[in-house]
Structures are given as C-alpha cells and as structure tokens.
Specification:
41% of the residues lie in helices and 14% in strands. α7 links the parallel β5 and β6. It has a five-stranded mixed β-sheet with strand order 4-3-5-6-7. Strands 1-2 form a two-stranded antiparallel ribbon. α1 packs across α2. With 204 residues, the chain is an alpha/beta fold.
Length: 204
C-alpha cells in the first residue's frame, strides 16, 4: 500500500490493524471515516487514547480498573457491598457484565487471565496469592468462581478449588450455573443469561 496513499493515512490504517478483530479492510474504513469526519472527532479520540495509560490503573486490592485518582475500587470501598462475598473473574470487563445484572452486591477479584500453558500463563501470572490474603483479611464466607465457560476458564476454576482446599481454608465455593453458553465470554453474555447464572450458581 506504500505510495498508493498518503503516509499519515497509511500509518493510521496500520495501527488500527493491530487491534484484535480488526482486519485490513476494516482498518481502512475506520481510518477513512476519521479522515472524512470533523477534525474534532479525531482529536477527541486521540486525546482519550493519550489518557488511557495515565488516567487508568488497577485497584491494589481487587485488580479492577479504576481512575488513577482513586485508591481502591468503589466496588470494594462502598460500605453497601458485602466483603464476605467475592466473585472471582478473569478480566476487569467481566465485572461490568455482572454489575449490569443488578443482582450482585458482593465484591470482586480479577485474576488477570486464565490458566493457559500454551500461552505461557501459569498460576504465578494470576492474582491468586492476593485472593488468599483477601479471604483471610475480610473473613470471606463464599467465593463465586465466575471464570469463563471455556477450557481455560474451567481449568482455572478447578485449580482454584484445589489450591484453596490445599491451603486448609474453610470456605463455601460456588460456580456460575450453566446459563452461559460454552465459548461465550462474560462480557458478551446478555443480562438475563448472567442473571440466571448468578441465581443458579452451584456449590462445589
């Protein structure tokens, strides 16, 4: 494509093409749209991207995404949340999906992924020691293991069960019910399905 289009446009197409799920043709359409649109649209997009790494950080307790000005996640510090109940999820966006159901009032713990030896993700890459510390410090009574209904998610759930039992921690553990189809990540599941999954969670 070099020489066929202006360099600045080609660079935008190339960068957009690095995004997951964005192919070459889609990247071209996005870049051309931004070129034709009012400059303010591109400027706002550029400004928001610049703030992405400076104004967003991980909560040191739950590992949820929070504003850089916040010390901990509001979903943890809010006195209305039940600290004795933790939903363990793989990624921060999974929290958004569960919150949309309006049926969960506990706290969260983001593992930061799922076990996947083929991708080089082992237990040491996940926030499991921090979870154990929270269980002890907050006198947690129940863990809802809300990992995705995938091979990696199931493996992670089984590992967590064994890890916690090997630590001789007495705690109720449950898993989201099978209302979520296999292969569908939490962030893409609809609210009704997630609501049923929360209500029908089973004891492990």
């Amino acid at each position: 494509m070099s020489g066929l289009l202006p360099k600045a446009l080609t660079e935008v197409i190339d960068e957009l093409g690095h995004l997951p799920g964005v192919g070459a043709r889609t990247a071209e359409r996005y870049a051309y749209y931004l070129l034709r649109a009012r400059p303010t649209i591109a400027n706002k997009l550029a400004s928001s991207l610049e703030k992405l790494h400076t104004d967003v950080k991980s909560c040191p307790v739950t590992f949820a995404l929070i504003d850089a000005s916040q010390e901990v996640s509001p979903l943890y510090s809010n006195p209305g949340r039940d600290k004795t109940l933790i939903a363990v999820v793989e990624e921060p966006l999974d929290i958004v999906a569960l919150e949309r159901t309006g049926q969960y009032h506990g706290t969260y713990h983001v593992l930061g992924g799922a076990l996947s030896p083929i991708d080089g993700v082992g237990p040491e890459q996940l926030h499991i020691p921090e979870l154990i510390e929270r269980i002890k410090n907050d006198n947690v009574q129940e863990l809802i293991i809300a990992t995705n209904a995938s091979v990696e998610g199931e493996s992670t759930a089984l590992f967590l069960q064994k890890y916690i039992r090997d630590e001789n921690i007495e705690i109720k553990m449950s898993r989201l019910a099978r209302g979520i189809p296999v292969g569908v990540d939490l962030e893409y599941a609809d609210q009704i399905t997630l609501g049923h999954a929360l209500e029908g969670r089973r004891i492990l």
